[in-house]
Amino acid sequence: MIKIDISKQLHGSNGLMDLDINADIKQGEFIALSGLSGSGKTTLLRILAGLEEASGKISVDKEVWLDGKNSLSIQKRQIGFVFQDYALFNNMSVEQNLLYVNKDKKLANKLLELTELKQLAKRMPNTLSGGQKQRVSLCRALMNSPKLLLMDEPLSALDPNMRMKLQNEILNLHKEFKTTTIMVSHEPSEIYRLANRVLVMKQGKIIQDGNPTEVLLKTSGSQKFSFEGEILDIIKTDVIYIAIISIGQQLVEIVLCEDEAKEYKVGEKVRVGTKAFAPTLSKI
Ligand SMILES: Nc1ncnc2c1ncn2[C@@H]1O[C@H](COP(=O)(O)OP(=O)(O)OP(=O)(O)O)[C@@H](O)[C@H]1O
């Protein structure tokens, strides 16, 4: 069990902001940490890792990581950290990056096999793709059998296909090692696939704490669809107008009458909704 009860005054974008976090995390939980930019997610991870000071207490099982002025050093905390920008040692091969953390060759091999990196073990990081680099940094973070794995938007620099592949690998690694994990993510589908619990932060506080269904599904099964998107263009045809909306990776056309077309502007954020129809599924 990880017990967190910390506070710290931060300089938010609108003046001072108190980071105040009180949460208990069970062994093996996979937590998605979500919330608007500037809400304090990265700072919380950095405090847990011992990279930043805070007041309060953090304990992991019977071990005290922080208690008032007493703070266990980063090296002694047994933390794995995966950053968005990989942070690999570029002068070391893939295998050396892993063995630098811990000389356990058997574990390094197992991790490289699980993430299909075995053939790349002797390669240098700058010869790898973004997805491969992030797999290496994930493996490296697991080399010291961390009590807590912290990941700060680890997949946000990757294209959607690679992102999905890495989500599966993260899931496999979590099944295998059951490492207690906190991962910052903004993507609902990613959170839904990976996490068993979601913490949503706002202005330094946790404002929602629940399982992904409770936190993410707002329609409660009512079959109303609603997607957020942005108007890319409004095109006039003979008698009607067509708004081109970008929703995630897709472009959608919505027919507008003249009065509606006047109401909206290109660049505006909109909600595309539909009700009273039965959605169907088909394989792709
Ligand atoms: N050591 C610090 N002392 C004071 N203020 C800080 C410190 N570190 C960060 N901040 C401020 O705290 C706020 C929260 O920053 P943080 O990076 O934790 O947010 P975030 O939720 O991770 O945002 P993003 O999603 O954009 O990465 C920011 O306004 C930042 O400037």
From TrEMBL:
Pfam family, one: ABC_tran
Residue ranges constituting the ABC transporter domain according to the UniProt record: 1-228
Coiled coil: none
InterPro entries according to UniProt: AAA+_ATPase, ABC_SmlMolc_Importer, ABC_transporter-like_ATP-bd, ABC_transporter-like_CS, ABC_transpr_FbpC, P-loop_NTPase
A GO-annotated cellular component: membrane
GO molecular function: ABC-type ferric iron transporter activity; ATP binding; ATP hydrolysis activity
Transmembrane segments: none
Superkingdom: Bacteria
Keyword list, A-Z: ATP-binding, Cell membrane, Ion transport, Iron, Iron transport, Membrane, Nucleotide-binding, Transport
Name this polypeptide is given: ATP-binding cassette domain-containing protein
